[in-house]
């Protein structure tokens, strides 16, 4: 049940789980942490994995289970990268909180360092001694996206849990719950589009759902793609048809016109075309050369080169692939429902 104080929150925060039992995935991790709590043996924790997979939600639900609401602010310190976590913060705020014992309250405090991979090496080195000295009084939970950016000395002091991207079967029940609670008119293809675009990121699913529901009367595949500025599947099929069958100038002009009219990014077009190219019957050597050229174009795009120049390169790559080859009609090779 949504309380009055949560009514105007973004849906990501409004529907953030408040108990470990409410979390929708990573059953083995939840079961292990529940066991730690029940036996009062919670170690220092290190959560890592892609964004929107439940890392912060898990530790906040854990903290709410450990501490009553009245004690929460005095027993839990949550710091984000935006709070500034250089060596000064570690030696000041974190050290003071960790070294101070709470009178009349048993148990340990909890320090949550979200986006810990943004901490400097000096700050991480200063933190490792604090973790050792005050283990009786405090437990640390480090949360990061890139494990490699956490120094080995900190990794060895924590029990590590990897949060992988969520499966669509795990996302769907929660998505249906939010749709029902918010009375959103959403079609099945709209749900499918949300899950495909999110790539296992629950936060992205809810953010795009809220944006689309606010901007359009119905959440369907078309409105979802329009809302995020992602090319529609039908548009990608048109572009691929042009690349495979039209001459250089008309192909370039048609794609450029569509990009401007719909506000599409060449990076998104390239990623979607790449998926379809794999499903066309092409000789191995032609496919290999085409994919290598597309990967070079993507690399140059990420380096900040001109989109119009790289669009020319994309059209040219397909023209070269067609030079000594009759390309089959993609309608015969690609299932419309894919």
From TrEMBL:
Domain AAA+ ATPase span(s) in chain numbering: 41-169
GO biological process: DNA repair; DNA-templated DNA replication
One MF term in the entry's GO annotations: ATP hydrolysis activity
Major site of localization recorded for this protein: nucleus
Cellular component, GO, one term: DNA replication factor C complex
Domain of life: Eukaryota
Intracellular or extracellular location(s): Nucleus
Key word Nucleus present: yes
Pfam families in the record: AAA (PF00004), Rep_fac_C (PF08542)
SUPFAM superfamilies linked: P-loop containing nucleoside triphosphate hydrolases (SSF52540), post-AAA+ oligomerization domain-like (SSF48019)
Key words, A-Z: ATP-binding, DNA replication, Nucleotide-binding, Nucleus
PANTHER family registered for this protein in UniProt: REPLICATION FACTOR C / DNA POLYMERASE III GAMMA-TAU SUBUNIT, REPLICATION FACTOR C SUBUNIT 5
Entry similarity comment: Belongs to the activator 1 small subunits family.
Protein's name according to its UniProt entry: Activator 1 subunit 5
């Amino acid at each position: 049940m949504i309380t009055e104080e949560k009514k105007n929150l973004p849906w990501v925060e409004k529907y953030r789980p408040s108990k470990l039992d409410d979390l929708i995935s990573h059953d083995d991790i939840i079961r292990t942490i529940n066991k730690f709590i029940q036996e009062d043996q919670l170690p220092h924790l290190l959560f890592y994995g892609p964004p929107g997979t439940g890392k912060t939600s898990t530790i906040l639900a854990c903290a709410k289970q450990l501490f009553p609401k009245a004690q929460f602010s005095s027993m839990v310190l949550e710091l984000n990268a935006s709070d500034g976590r250089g060596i000064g913060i570690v030696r000041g705020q974190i050290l003071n909180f960790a070294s101070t014992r709470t009178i009349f309250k048993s148990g340990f405090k909890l320090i949550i360092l979200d986006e810990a991979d943004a901490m400097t090496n000096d700050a991480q080195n200063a933190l490792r001694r604090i973790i050792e000295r005050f283990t009786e009084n405090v437990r640390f939970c480090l949360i990061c996206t890139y494990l490699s950016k956490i120094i080995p000395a900190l990794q060895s002091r924590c029990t590590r849990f990897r949060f992988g991207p969520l499966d669509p079967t795990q996302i769907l029940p929660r998505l249906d719950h939010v749709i029902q609670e918010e009375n959103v008119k959403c079609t099945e293809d709209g749900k499918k589009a949300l899950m495909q675009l999110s790539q296992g990121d629950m936060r992205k699913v809810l953010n795009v759902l809220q944006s689309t529901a606010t901007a359009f009367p119905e959440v369907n595949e078309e409105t979802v793609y329009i809302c995020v500025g992602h090319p529609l599947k039908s548009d990608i099929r048109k572009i691929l048809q042009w690349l495979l069958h039209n001459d250089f100038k008309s192909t370039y002009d048609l794609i450029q016109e569509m990009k401007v009219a719909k506000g599409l990014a060449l990076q998104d077009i390239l990623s979607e075309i790449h998926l379809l190219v794999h499903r066309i019957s092409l000789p191995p050597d032609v496919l290999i050369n085409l994919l290598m050229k597309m990967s070079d174009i993507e690399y140059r795009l990420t380096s900040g080169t001109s989109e119009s120049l790289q669009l020319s390169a994309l059209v040219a790559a397909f023209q070269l692939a067609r030079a000594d080859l009759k390309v089959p009609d993609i309608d015969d090779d690609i299932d419309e429902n894919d």
